[in-house]
């Protein structure tokens, strides 16, 4: 978003310079400003959309678009355990790998409920390790 604002600012300066030094009609500046404002609004809408940051498959996981994640991808067999922690005031899920490295996923960036993410993670991790859930006994 910051880059978009800088680009729009440069565009506005160029248009203002064109009006001042080249005698371009003011209508061109007005049109340019309208286009710049529309571009900022469109980029703002796009920036608010949630992108997929964590993908699970049968072999493992991949984390994208998150800084400070640590290990960005791994196989389920590498995962030793999972913990819920708070890092810098942000709730996170940490996957601890067998070699001591970690993957940290802030749950605030997820496009799903935390409970759904954890349940999906648990199911993939169980399958990756070959575990089967035992259904609760009835009776």
What features would you describe in this structure?
This protein is of the alpha+beta class and 139 residues long. The protein folds into two domains: 2-48; 54-129, PH-domain like, CATH 2.30.29. It is built from three helices and six strands. It has a three-stranded antiparallel β-sheet, covered by helices on one side. The mean pLDDT is 85.
Keywords:
single chain; 6 strands; 3 helices; 3-stranded antiparallel β-sheet; 2 domains; alpha+beta; elongated
Describe how the helices and strands are arranged.
Blueprint: H1 2-22, H2 26-48, E1 54-56, E2 60-63, E3 73-75, E4 79-87, E5 90-97, E6 102-106, H3 114-129
Antiparallel strand pairs: 1-2, 2-3, 4-5, 5-6
Fraction of helical residues = 40-55%
SS class: alpha+beta
Instruction: Please give the radius of gyration in angstroms.
Output: 24 Å
Q: Identify the overall geometry.
A: elongated
Strand order of the largest sheet: 1-2-3
Strand content: 15-25%
Q: What is the number of helical segments per DSSP (H or I, 4+ residues)? A: 3
Mean pLDDT comes to: 85
Tell me the CATH architecture of the largest domain: Roll
CATH class of the largest domain: Mainly Beta
CATH fold descriptor of the largest domain: PH-domain like
Give the CATH superfamily of the largest domain: Pleckstrin-homology domain (PH domain)/Phosphotyrosine-binding domain (PTB)
Largest β-sheet summary: 3 strands, antiparallel
How many strands? 6
What's the domain count? 2
The ordered string of helix (H) and strand (E) elements is HHEEEEEEH
Cα distance spanning the termini: 58 Å
The low-pLDDT segments are none
């Amino acid at each position: 978003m910051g880059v978009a604002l800088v680009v729009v600012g440069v565009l506005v300066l160029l248009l203002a310079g064109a009006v001042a030094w080249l005698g371009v009609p003011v209508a061109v500046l007005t049109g340019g400003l309208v286009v710049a404002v529309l571009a900022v609004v469109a980029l703002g809408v796009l920036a608010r959309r949630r992108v997929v940051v964590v993908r699970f498959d049968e072999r493992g996981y991949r984390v994208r678009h998150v800084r400070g994640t640590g290990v960005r991808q791994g196989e389920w067999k590498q995962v030793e355990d999972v913990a819920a922690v708070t890092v810098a005031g942000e709730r996170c899920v940490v996957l601890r790998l067998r070699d001591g490295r970690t993957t940290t996923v802030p749950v605030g960036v997820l496009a799903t409920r935390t409970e759904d993410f954890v349940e999906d993670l648990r199911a993939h991790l169980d399958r990756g390790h070959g575990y089967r859930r035992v259904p609760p006994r009835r009776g």
